[in-house]
Write a structure and sequence with these properties.
Layout (H helix, E strand, L loop, with lengths): L11 E4 L7 H8 L4 E4 L5 H11 L3 E5 L8 H13 L4 E6 L1 H14 L3 E5 L10 E6 L2 E6 L7 E4 L9 H19 L6 H23 L4 H20 L4 H13 L3 H16 L4 H11 L4 H11 L16 H10 L10 H13 L5
Parallel strand pairs: 1-8, 2-3, 2-4, 4-5, 5-8
Antiparallel strand pairs: 6-7
Helix pairs in contact: 3-4, 5-6, 5-7, 5-9, 6-7, 6-10, 8-9, 9-11, 9-13, 10-11, 12-13
Bound molecules: nicotinamide-adenine-dinucleotide (NAD).
């Protein structure tokens, strides 16, 4: 056993079908009395239903969360929280909504309670992102880590299968990179492998039957584990590339992760053999990169950057941006192989 450091993050998780019923108890435990309920416009009805059951303990509903937390939206939400006298942000939704809760917390120090309804995993991390003028800035701050997370698979039954698959593979990407992270340790690696396994086995069941509550529970459990390792150890090439592509070309987050992952794994294949073996085993495949590609393709997810709107003429710019800021990766980041990776992802080729 090698030496390692494991830093546990302080959050409380309440897991189970129907666990939304514990919301009032969880607010009581934290001494919270006026929650501002956050959601995207698409989930307004869900947020309003939760606010209605909270009654006087809901300070209001702010249903304007959007992808990548634009600064203007974050400022508006902070102003609303102050105006209505909220004592916490209650984020009901995916990574976009949790991200808005974090942006409120960053400035105001208000605690965040998260009720995740996708598999993105943001609720388990102290990582925030705010986009200003087309540039997404991310950082880590202990204040933004949700104090309590309520995982209720019943709330994910309505998640469309297409988003279920891409956000599930987004979660798998956190765990895959955690397995070859510079600061990987036996605890996070165990969680990462189990997280990949839970998602890889449940996503096909969800595609076949979106209301399969047991599969929804397994996927949400996997998402929790994958989010936790994202919060605990550093990421590498895959996450940096997706950040570049999403931020610079406004590509959808979960789809971008789904498309790039097989190619990032192929890039790192020979530099991280033990991690690749564990990823492949968790995917039930003989090769990690091919297993990630097949999981996406077999479940109807996009496999090429072209089909989600990247233009061929953007590839050179993407390459330049990706090479601009050096970062750690198990294999050195070099222009020619990275150009080939981007080309493969653009075309949607199965990794060889
Ligand atoms: P999202 O939150 O944008 O949700 C996608 C869509 O699905 C939205 O319209 C949403 O309202 C809808 N939706 C969510 N749950 C639903 C449900 N149960 N039923 C019906 N519709 C539902 O997408 P996402 O992939 O969860 O999050 C992406 C964002 O999260 C990105 O901005 C990304 O950068 C961020 N993120 C951050 C971290 C972090 O640690 N900070 C981690 C992962 C992702």
């Amino acid at each position: 056993m090698n030496d390692f450091i494991y830093h546990a993050l302080p959050s409380r998780v309440v897991f189970g079908a129907g666990s939304l019923r514990h919301l009032e108890r969880e607010l009581d435990l934290l001494g919270l009395k006026r929650a501002l309920v956050l959601s995207t416009p698409q989930q307004r009805a869900q947020a309003e239903a939760i606010a209605a059951r909270l009654g006087a303990r809901a300070a209001g509903v702010f249903a304007d969360a959007v992808m990548h937390v634009p600064l203007a939206v974050a400022r508006e939400a902070r102003a609303v929280a102050e105006r209505v006298g909220a004592d916490c942000a209650l984020a009901v939704g995916g990574g976009s909504t949790t991200g808005l809760g974090k942006a409120i917390a960053l400035d105001s120090g208000l605690p965040v309670i998260a009720i995740p309804t996708t598999y993105a995993g943001s609720e388990m991390t102290p990582i925030y992102g705010i986009t200003d003028d087309g540039i997404k800035k991310t950082g880590r701050d202990a204040r933004v880590l949700p104090k309590t997370v309520i995982y209720d698979p019943e709330l994910t039954l309505s998640l469309p299968t297409s988003i279920s698959v891409t956000s599930g593979i987004n979660a798998i990407a956190h765990a895959a990179e955690a397995l070859y992270s510079q600061d990987a340790n036996p605890i996070t690696s165990m969680m990462a492998e189990e997280g990949i396994r839970a998602l890889a086995s449940s996503l096909p069941c969800i595609v076949r039957r979106p209301t399969d509550l047991a599969a929804r529970g397994d996927a949400l459990y996997g998402a929790w584990l994958c989010g936790a390792v994202l919060g605990a150890v550093g990421m590498a090439l895959h996450h940096k590339l997706c950040h570049t592509l999403g931020g610079s070309f406004n590509l959808p987050h979960a789809e971008t992760h789904t498309i790039v992952l097989p190619h990032a794994l192929a890039y790192n294949r020979d530099a991280a053999p033990d991690a690749m073996r564990r990823i492949a085993r968790a995917l039930g495949a003989s090769d990690a990169a091919q297993g990630a590609y097949d999981l996406a393709k077999a479940n109807g997810a996009p496999v090429s950057l072209r089909e989600i709107g990247l233009r061929e003429s953007d590839l050179d710019t993407a390459l330049d941006i990706a090479l601009r800021n050096p970062y750690w990766n198990p294999r050195p980041i070099e222009r020619a192989p990275l150009a080939a990776l981007l080309r493969d992802a653009y075309e949607g080729r199965r990794p060889t």
